[in-house]
Amino acid sequence: MVLTSLLINFFILLPDIEENAVNQEILCKNFFGENFEQIPGGIIGAMLFVMILIFVLGFFLDFIQIVFTIIPIVGPILLQMDINPLWFGIMIAVNLQTSFLTPPFGFALFYFRGIAPVSIKTIDIYKGVLPFVIIQIIVLLLIAKFPEIALWLPEKLY
Predict the structure, then answer these.
(1) DSSP conformational letter for 31
(2) How many CB atoms lie within 10 A of CB 7?
(3) What is the rounded distance in angstroms from the CA atom of residue 13 to the CA atom of residue 18?
(4) Is residue 103 a contact partner of residue 109, using CB atoms and an 8 Å limit?
(5) Distant-in-sequence, close-in-space partners of 77: CB < 8 Å, separation ≥ 6
(6) How far apart are CA 141 and CA 137, in angstroms?
(7) Residue 78 in contact with residue 91, Cβ under 8 Å?
(8) What is the DSSP string of 126-157?
(9) Within 13 Å of residue 135, how many CA atoms lie on the same side as its CB?
(10) Are 105 and 59 in contact (CB under 8 A)?
(11) What is the pLDDT of residues 117-156, one digit of tens each?
């Protein structure tokens, strides 16, 4: 039963995966590849653009959609610009954490709304998470300025 279900899902998703791979190849080479080289600031400008893009998309999209659509497109280009892949992944993870707290589709906000008393308004929840969003942005800036903050533990372990 489980194997049958797995095979059915695999054959349903396979054409979508192949189409997605072809589209990403076209987008990476044709559109983003050429335009990323023209972003002012070189690597820093390109990385800033991607982080702002992920942050803004986090307002409207689930983190899974961002990971499966945006990262495969911009990731290879940024990695070709000689960015540490581990640092890049940590930057994306911290940035995506913020999407859980940003309205209108922050999932953590819905969880808070579910457990909060009726007397607490939704707008109060939105205002209450603002300091935490600011803290995460500060952490993101610190990791960007000092990559050693995020990379020292993996370097010690591996």
Answers:
(1) I
(2) 10
(3) 9
(4) yes
(5) 28, 32, 33, 36, 46
(6) 6
(7) no
(8) HHHHHHHHHHHHHHHHHHHH-THHHHHHHHHH
(9) 7
(10) yes
(11) 999 998 898 898 899 999 999 999 999 999 999 898 888 8
Give the span between the Cα atoms of 30 and 23, in whole angstroms.
Answer: 10
Cα–Cα distances in angstroms (integers) from residue 52 to residues 16, 36, 42, in the given order: 28, 14, 15
Spell out the domain ranges in the chain: 2-157
The gap from C-alpha 76 to its chain's centroid, in whole angstroms, comes to 15
- Listed in sequence order, the DSSP H helices in 27-104 are 33-36, 42-60, 63-69, 71-80, 85-99
Summarised one tens digit per residue, pLDDT across range 14-56 is 555 555 655 556 555 566 666 667 778 888 888 898 999 998 8
CA distance readout (Å), 123 to 56, 68, 104, 109, 110: 20, 31, 11, 10, 12
**What is the token pair recorded at 35?**
């335009």
On the question of a cis peptide bond just before residue 104, with omega within 30 degrees of 0, the verdict is yes
